[in-house]
C-alpha cells in the first residue's frame, strides 16, 4: 500500500510518498514561497 502525506502551510506545500509494504519513502518534495512577492 502507498500513502501520500501532504503538509500545507501558509506559503508552502510539502509531500512524502510512502510504500508501507516495504517501509520506505518513495518520493518527497515541496514547493515554497507560494503567493509571496
TrEMBL record:
Pfam families: Acetate_kinase. Gene3D superfamilies: 3.30.420.40. Keywords: ATP-binding, Kinase, Nucleotide-binding, Transferase. GO terms for molecular function: ATP binding; kinase activity; phosphotransferase activity, carboxyl group as acceptor. InterPro entries: Aliphatic_acid_kin_short-chain, Aliphatic_acid_kinase_CS, ATPase_NBD. Belongs to the acetokinase family. Transmembrane segments: none annotated. It comes from the Bacteria. This is Butyrate kinase.
Amino acid at each position: 500500500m502507498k500513502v501520500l502525506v501532504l503538509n500545507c502551510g501558509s506559503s508552502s506545500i510539502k509531500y512524502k510518498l510512502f510504500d508501507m509494504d516495504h517501509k520506505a519513502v518513495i518520493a518527497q518534495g515541496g514547493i515554497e514561497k507560494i503567493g509571496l512577492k
